[in-house]
């Protein structure tokens, strides 16, 4: 059986400035004929070129990751995780919306200087030989039969949230809170009539504070029935283990498809996500079986 993931060689087909802090890069390449879209919030790895080396030392076989980790620091291409904003298989085109942080990191440097024709490498799932071979773990949005949704995240989660919104059924009902650096960073996105979308601009405020306030205000209006077992007895609340977000990954994405009233999907800076996780599960009483919490990044921590 072929490996479920592979390195794809692509090149930049277009660079579009969307807002002061969002840049859309359209990638293309014949190898994308083997790329597989597995979900609405699909993550891929982006391997960035090294000055003076490009991708000359990047392993590309099935065991590329182990070989990559064994490389000296000077010849190891940086890796960052991004969400596929859209994929057009017939055109062999894939869009990624980058956040221009201006922090001097490898991704910020690359996107600020990239031009049409520049080479890039991405790692993602390949088209499976059979449906049973479709890889899991690259996308998490799974609301099941929930009749109300909550989506919340910062700018790093905005591309995933927008992709989810545009694919929701027209009958969907819910609330969406997206925190971005400034008022000018609101992105155009379509959503069902029953889904309210709020773009929350920090405008200099501390990261995550305003989004947290909005989510907690929303949670105060939600009536969550106490969970019960099939025999009618009250369910014992699941203990919520603490996560040290400075040293552990905050990632809790249950897969059960239960008939629960609310499904929450929250992603972004891990410290902020942790606080919202605690409030919604312990404070409000949302059932963990349909709540996805993902720490996409952490203040002061490089991804790779």
By DSSP, the count of extended strands is 12
Number of helices: 5
Q: Whole-number radius of gyration? A: 20 Å
Distance between the termini: 29 Å
The assembly state of the depicted protein chains is single chain
Largest sheet: 6 strands, antiparallel, barrel
Q: What percent strand?
A: 25-35%
Helical proportion?
Answer: 10-25%
The mean pLDDT is 86
Q: What would the principal axes of the Cα set say about the shape?
A: globular
Which structural class best describes the helix and strand composition?
A: alpha/beta
Secondary-structure element series = EEEHEEHEEHEEHEEHE
List unreliable stretches of 5+ residues. none
Question: If strands are numbered along the chain, what order do they take across the biggest sheet?
Answer: 1-2-5-4-3-6
Write a brief caption for the model.
The chain is α/β, with parallel strands linked by helices and 304 residues long. It contains five helices and twelve strands.
Structural summary, described in words:
There is one protein chain. With 304 residues, this protein is of the alpha/beta class. Helix content is 16%, strand content 28%. The protein has five helices and twelve strands. Strands 1-2-5-4-3-6 form a six-stranded antiparallel beta barrel. A six-stranded mixed sheet has the order 9-8-7-11-12-10, covered by helices on one side. A hairpin with a 4-residue loop joins strand 1 and strand 2. Helix 4 packs parallel to helix 5 (270-284). It starts with a strand and ends in a 7-residue tail after the last strand. The model has no long low-confidence stretch (mean pLDDT 86).
């Amino acid at each position: 059986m072929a490996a479920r993931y592979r390195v794809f060689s692509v090149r930049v087909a277009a660079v579009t400035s969307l807002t002061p802090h969002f840049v859309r890069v359209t990638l293309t390449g014949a190898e994308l004929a083997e790329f597989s879209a597995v979900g609405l919030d699909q993550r891929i790895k982006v391997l960035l070129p090294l000055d003076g080396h490009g991708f000359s030392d990047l392993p590309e076989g099935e065991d590329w990751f182990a070989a990559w980790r064994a490389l000296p620091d000077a010849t190891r291409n940086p890796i960052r995780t991004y969400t596929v904003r859209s994929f057009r298989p017939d055109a062999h085109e894939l869009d990624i919306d980058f956040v221009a942080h201006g922090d001097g990191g490898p991704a910020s440097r690359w996107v600020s200087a990239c031009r049409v024709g520049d080479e890039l490498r991405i790692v993602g799932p390949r088209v499976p030989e059979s449906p049973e071979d479709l890889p899991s773990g690259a996308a998490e949005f799974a609301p099941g039969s929930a009749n109300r949704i909550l989506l919340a995240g910062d700018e790093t989660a905005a591309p995933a949230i927008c992709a989810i919104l545009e694919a929701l059924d027209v009958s969907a009902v819910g609330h969406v809170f997206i925190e971005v650096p400034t008022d000018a960073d609101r992105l155009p996105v379509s959503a069902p009539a029953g889904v309210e979308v709020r773009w929350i601009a920090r405008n200099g405020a501390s990261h995550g504070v305003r989004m947290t306030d909005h989510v907690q205000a929303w949670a105060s209006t939600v009536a969550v029935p106490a969970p019960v077992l099939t025999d009618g007895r009250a369910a014992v609340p699941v203990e919520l283990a603490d996560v040290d977000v400075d040293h552990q990954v905050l990632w809790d994405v249950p897969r059960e498809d239960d008939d629960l009233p609310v499904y929450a999907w929250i992603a972004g800076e891990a410290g902020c996500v942790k606080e919202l996780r605690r409030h919604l599960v312990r404070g409000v009483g949302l059932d963990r079986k349909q709540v996805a919490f993902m720490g996409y990044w952490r203040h002061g921590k490089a991804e790779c």
